TrEMBL record:
<feature type="signal peptide">
    <location>
        <begin position="1"/>
        <end position="27"/>
    </location>
</feature>
<keyword id="KW-0378">Hydrolase</keyword>
<dbReference type="InterPro" id="IPR024607">
    <property type="entry name" value="Sulfatase_CS"/>
</dbReference>
<keyword id="KW-0106">Calcium</keyword>
<dbReference type="InterPro" id="IPR017850">
    <property type="entry name" value="Alkaline_phosphatase_core_sf"/>
</dbReference>
<dbReference type="InterPro" id="IPR050738">
    <property type="entry name" value="Sulfatase"/>
</dbReference>
<dbReference type="Pfam" id="PF14707">
    <property type="entry name" value="Sulfatase_C"/>
</dbReference>
<dbReference type="Pfam" id="PF00884">
    <property type="entry name" value="Sulfatase"/>
</dbReference>
<keyword id="KW-0732">Signal</keyword>
<keyword id="KW-0479">Metal-binding</keyword>
<feature type="domain" description="Sulfatase N-terminal">
    <location>
        <begin position="28"/>
        <end position="348"/>
    </location>
</feature>
<dbReference type="InterPro" id="IPR000917">
    <property type="entry name" value="Sulfatase_N"/>
</dbReference>
<protein>
    <submittedName>
        <fullName>Arylsulfatase</fullName>
    </submittedName>
</protein>
<comment type="similarity">
    <text>Belongs to the sulfatase family.</text>
</comment>
Length: 484
């Protein structure tokens, strides 16, 4: 009897001690919401309107809003490669926007955020635009995702004209594009044939994203939600058409905002909101020559497809209750390439075996004193052109050829205007005083020019620079697609 009582007392003592021991916090979930061609000035919290974006406003009020956040490159595929791998895209052989018949894709040798978290026991899901290879073995399921529903590339890569009608002109290059597939897993679920079909995409993605959260609410998960819009052609569901009072683009902004709201609401309903890092950002700036079907840069220079600020500086809001102080704004430099190492650190995942360019910005998210993990950033474009470099408040733009939206009026109602090429001269800009990049101050600050040139030369040695005929010593090959 004494032995039994002693055992009971011991068990009670152990239980009491255990009750006071800190329990291991559950692994945090991660949701990345990636927009297509949404400009720096498009969300209301960045000055957009007159439409409303209340859910993004709420994210900004509950989290951190970045004012100097950069896409990895100012174009679709390259930008997405940078986000998912933590690399400058030219390091891993990805540039431009990959077309359906592209001979290259994201190499299976590169490790994505999804692969790192899956190895840590996370469920991984993706909805939306992939654009890193349009057929196996280069689709999301071969790059770490357990589930996928979406388009393999941009929603304008289809044999349909700007008026929404099939292209019958055999001389039109776009008319030779294949039908636009909506893919589930590795297989075509249906063909997107019309603008009415496109109007269903946002709600389809939203429903699938919310269902993924519900299905995996009892285990850690990573959800990558890559909207196909506001990339043209834009289309909205009947529920939102004509509701904003700000035209079709305004209607779309309100539908996209409602989609974000649905994801946030699902996190709250499942009780996961306080343990989920939500990241909202865009792949590059707006396609300005589409006029009223494109967004705005908030006064930054140029847009998509340029290394000026309007092309590469994008909106970004991160929310993580209890970890990221609510209602904070940071003017520090950060980039989509910093998301992978930051998420890996937060989730306890291993870093990629191969070298990456991203930096862990967790100290910045937590607003630790003096946190400034990234003091410079390089702007590559084209196949491998180093077009600019920024350190601190100064940005040095190197001579190059690039597009401009300023010499011609834009198109309207879905039709594009011209985007001619210009020769861009060497120039130094003080972005703290001149975010529109209008005043060249290289004569006033020759020592800054010299410092940035020297830093750029370091990147030319490793990542190369076609403008200087330098190949670089650290570039890796992309995946090679078997051509039929």
């Amino acid at each position: 009897m004494k032995k039994i009582m002693a055992g009971v007392v011991l068990a009670a003592a152990v239980a009491a001690v255990c009750s006071f021991m800190p329990r291991k916090a559950p692994a945090p979930n991660v949701v990345i919401i990636f927009m297509d061609d949404m400009g720096y000035g498009d969300p209301a919290s960045y000055g957009g309107g007159p439409y409303k974006t209340p859910n993004l406003d709420r994210m900004a009020a509950h989290g951190m809003r970045f004012t100097h956040f950069y896409a990895a490159q100012a174009v679709c595929s390259a930008s997405r490669a940078g986000l998912l791998t933590g690399c400058y895209p030219n390091r891993i052989g990805i540039h431009g926007a990959l077309f359906p018949a592209s001979p290259t894709a994201l190499s299976n040798e590169e490790e994505t955020i999804a692969e790192l978290l899956k190895a840590k026991g996370y469920s991984t899901g993706m909805v939306g635009k992939w654009h890193l290879g349009s057929k196996p073995p280069f689709l999301p399921l071969q790059n770490g995702f357990d589930e996928y529903l979406g388009l393999p590339y941009s929603n304008d890569m289809w044999p349909v004209d700007y008026d929404g009608k099939p292209i019958t002109d055999t001389a039109n290059r776009r008319g030779k594009l294949p039908p636009l597939p909506l893919i589930e897993g590795n297989n075509t679920l249906r063909i997107i044939k019309t603008l009415e079909d496109q109007s269903e995409l946002t709600s389809l993605y939203t429903e699938r994203a919310c269902n993924f959260i519900w299905a995996h609410k009892k285990q850690p998960f990573f959800l990558y939600m890559a909207h196909s819009m506001p990339h043209v052609p834009i289309a909205v569901s009947p529920k939102f058409k004509g509701k904003s009072g700000a035209g079709l683009f305004g209607d779309l902004m309100e539908e996209l905002d409602a989609s974000i709201g649905a994801v946030l609401k699902t996190l709250e309903e499942t009780g996961l909101d306080k343990n989920t890092l939500v990241i909202f950002t865009s792949d590059n700036g707006p396609w300005l020559n589409f006029g009223n079907h494109a967004g705005n840069t908030g006064g930054l220079r140029e847009g998509k497809g340029t290394s000026f600020e309007g092309g590469q500086r994008v909106p970004c809001i991160m929310q993580w209750p209890g970890q990221i102080p609510a209602g904070t704004i940071t003017n520090a430099i950060a980039s989509t390439i910093d998301i992978l190492p930051t998420v890996a650190n937060i989730c306890g995942a291993k870093m990629p075996a191969k070298k990456i360019d991203g930096l862990n910005i967790l100290s910045l998210l937590k607003q630790e004193k003096g946190a400034n993990p990234r003091d410079h950033f390089v702007y590559y474009y084209g196949t491998n052109n180093l077009e600019a470099i920024r350190k601190g408040k100064y940005k040095l733009v190197f001579p190059h050829k690039g597009r401009t939206y300023k010499n011609n009026l834009p198109g309207y109602d879905g039709f594009p205007g011209a985007q001619p090429s210009i020769t861009v001269p060497l120039a130094l800009y003080d972005l703290s005083r001149d975010p529109g990049e209008t005043l060249d101050v290289q004569q006033q600050f020759p020592e800054v020019v010299k410092e940035l040139e020297a830093l750029a030369d370091q990147y030319r040695q490793t990542l190369g620079d076609d403008l200087k005929n330098m190949k670089g010593t650290e570039r890796r090959e992309p995946g090679r697609v078997a051509m039929n």
